[in-house]
Each structure stands twice: as structure tokens, then as C-alpha cells.
Fold this sequence. Notes:
The complex is a heterodimer of chains A (about 240) and B (about 190). Chain A has 2 domains: about 50 residues, Orthogonal Bundle (Arc Repressor Mutant, subunit A); about 180 residues, no CATH class. About 20% of the residues of chain A have low confidence. Chain A is α+β, with helices and mostly antiparallel strands. In chain B, about 35% of the residues are buried. Chain B starts with 9 loop residues before the first helix and ends in a 7-residue tail after the last helix. In chain B, helix 2 packs across helix 4. Chain B has 2 domains: about 110 residues, Orthogonal Bundle (Rna Polymerase Sigma Factor, Chain: A), CATH 1.10.1740.10; about 80 residues, Winged helix-like DNA-binding domain superfamily/Winged helix DNA-binding domain (Arc Repressor Mutant, subunit A, Orthogonal Bundle), CATH 1.10.10.10. Helix content of chain B is about 70%, strand content about 0%. Chain B is mainly alpha-helical and about 190 residues long. The C terminus of chain B is likely disordered.
Amino acid sequence: MMDGNHTTYREEIGAYLLGALTDDEREGFEQHLEDCPECRAEIEELRPAADALPRSVEQVEPPASLKTSLMEIVEREAREAAAGEGEQTRAAPPARSRPPLRERLPSLRPAFALGALVLGLAVGFGVAQLGGDEGARTVAATVDQERIPQGSGDLRIEGDGEDGAILRVNQMPDLRGREVYQAWVQRDGMVIPQPTFEVGPDGSGAVAVPEDLSDAQAVLVTREQRGGATAPSEQPILSVPL
Amino acid sequence: MAKDIRDLADEEVMQLVQSGNPRAFELLYDRHGGAAFSLAYRMVGNRGAAEDIVQEAFLSIWRSRLRYDQARGSVRTWVLGIVHNRTIDALRRSMVHDRRRETMEGIEERQEAPERTEVEAARREEARNIRDALDTLPEEQRKTIELAYFGGFSHSQIAELLNEPVGTIKGRMRLGLDKMRRQLSEGYAAGGFA
């Protein structure tokens, strides 16, 4: 049965289909829809036009790194789910709507001493706080301009960094499959291996750094053999001082 | 003989995704990731912000894979709807407003996707046809629809921006969509619309 505000709600059909109602307005509208076959019918009639809008957009190539980082997370979660099924009979873990980033990414390998790795990048490197939104900050990376003349990057840290961060790079050379980039976290004279990543044809790439960064000194990047290394084989080409 | 996963229709691929198959998810991304990224990029005008949104949207699909309802429309429409909602959320949180401003000043260049397959060529043709249908609308209706759908503005914000009553804006949205629907159904009655 239609309520007394039917005329008012009917005027909002276009706004509803275009996503132009606020959350509260949408909630009220959807409640009205439950009892109003007339509005439901008109929505179904107009929906093809609204559904066509996203398909009108000119196609833009997404960076290859987007798929790489997405699949790293998905494959890790699939493995965890498969392993979890076997363990469920022993102990059921507490339910979580969304595990923190560090739990969604490949397991960390053991930490190795920094050893002879000299962080010559520190001299002359400035730290720029690029800004951030609610609970997040972005720190600019400094790049060894002699080896990577055009490169740049930044690290997006959620909260206090306990759940890691996302490192993004731009205009980095494509290593053409022989080598990969690898992230590291520097803490208390140690460097802790993080996931490897590649860049797309446009030189952009991204990798999740799952390590707790709350007491880390820097996030670093080196070039390593495919598969990654347990200790850096060169001085960092990119550094994000924390 | 086992069917190659790449030969499966989207709805069949989604069934595999729902069972937690990462290869099916990868195929889903290969088919719709470009369109998803293009939509987010169109709305926020920045590659980095678009990447964040698409990654979150696809992860939400992976993690809530039981929610897809075939009766509700095609997989492509469903995926793009999720990306659209997430982009609107991001825009309304003002997460990306500054980045969008940068792009409007011409700082960033767009990299158009190359046409690789017949399917992609057909989609470009379809995109042109939808833009043509949008262009047939009276200017004020087209502008209102674009501000709402691609700009992420609410009807009251648009009313303020255009200095018009809210009722007028709501009316333009509804009338504009109705006209567009008729244009599309007239133009594609023969060939059908994916």
C-alpha cells in the first residue's frame, strides 16, 4: 500500500537511481519502495538508462600493479581459507569482519641484520608530509636520483602504522622480468623483508607493506632476483624515512 | 572434456568466485577491471585515487561473494554499481577532492586503453552510443545527471551549485533518465544492449 508521501518519493526516483540521495534519504526511499509497486515499476523502467551511464566512460588502462597487488591479497586469503577449513575442527578463530592488512598479505620472512648495508640515502633527503585524511597520512619517498632519475613514490600509512602501509611508486624502470622490486622495513639495525612487486608499462606500481611500522625507522626498496631476497643485495634505490 | 575457464560466461565465473576460486576472480578482474578503473578515474580524475577505490571494490566483491544475485542484472552492471557507490563514498568523504582539482588543472595525463579485441572495440562503440544518447538531452538535464552520477553530488548540493530549487533538480534527473531510456531503446531495439 502506498503511503501519504508517495508523490514526494516518486519525485526522487531519478535521484535514487543516480546515487544522488543522502544515506538517510535513501533509507527512507527504500522503505517506501517496499510498499509501493508503482515506484518499483518506474524504477525498473528507468534503471537501464542509469545502468548505461558507467558504460559511457572512455576506457583508461589500469596500471598492471593494481592487478598484481589485488591478486597477492586474494591468493593469500584463498590459501588461508583452505588452511582454515582443516583447522576449524581444532579451534574456531574469533569472527572478524575485515582482518588487518598485515594478516591479508604473505607471511613475513625472518628478519636479517642490516649488516654492511649503508644507507647513504639519508644525506640530503627531506621528508615531506603529503597530507592525509581521517586516520591516514602519506609520506613522500626519496629516490636515489643517480640510479633512478625520474622515480618517485609515497607511503600511505593508516592509523599509527600497526597494520602496515601501501607503498606506491611512479616512473620506475621496468625490470623486464629478470628482477623485481622488493620492499624492506628498517627497524633497530635490522631490515625485514617485505613483498616484491613490479611496475607497469607506465612505470607505476604498488605494494602492501604488512609489517608493523609504529616503531620502524624507514621503508626501503631494492632490486632483487625474481622471488625476492632474504637480505638486500644493493643499497636502497628508494627510501621513506619514518 | 573440461571447459576452459576463459570460455565461461560471467555468471558462471561468478559461481566459481563465490566458491573462493582465485583464478575465477582473476578472470573477473581481467574482464571488468578496466571498466571499473575507467569509471573511478572518470569520477575522481586521479589514477592513484582510482586505484585505491577499484582495489577496495574488488576486494569487497571477493570477500562478500555470496551477495551477487543474478536476478538483479549482469555481472558487469553489478561490478560497476559497486565501484560507483564506493567512489561516491570517497568523493563525499572529500578524500579525493584535492587530487581531482590537480587533474582539472591539467597536471595529470590520461592513458587511454588500447583496443585489443573485438569485444573492446564493441564496448567503445557502445560507449559512444550512450554518450550520443546523453548528448540528446536538454543541456540542463545532461548537466544535472552528470553532476549526480559522475560528480557524486547529492540533489541538494546540485541545487545549490546551479542555484535552482531542489524540486527542479529532482525533476530534471527523472525526466532526463526517462528521455535517455527512450533514446537507448529506440537506438538499440535491433541490436540489444549488453
